[in-house]
Amino acid sequence: MKQHLAALSMLFDWLVIGQVMTFNPAASVHGPKHIVREGKTPILDEHEMGELLASLNTGQLSDLRDRAILGLMAYSFARVSALTKMQVKDFYQQGSKPGLSCMKKAGS
Questions:
Q1: pTM for this prediction
Q2: At 34, phi and psi to the nearest 5?
Q3: Contact between 72 and 100 (Cβ < 8 Å)
């Protein structure tokens, strides 16, 4: 519906520019608000994520790194850009629990 309204508005704009009409009657009409209730990105459940991590090769150091990155992304919901900017100093120990600090979107 919103696309149809946009097409009509553009047609009337073109007619106004071509001086066929004096004003655009669709200029004040706004379409319905688009609301997305569910995302399109598929999410792995706990069992599927465990299978994925178990299926990865761990023969080389780079394989272990890749497995750690996938696990961190899956369990922390961190962005790829945040993970690629992490450094060793971002890992810290708080009592007996390890922690990671990673930059979120917009640098916070």
A1: 0.49
A2: -90, 120
A3: yes
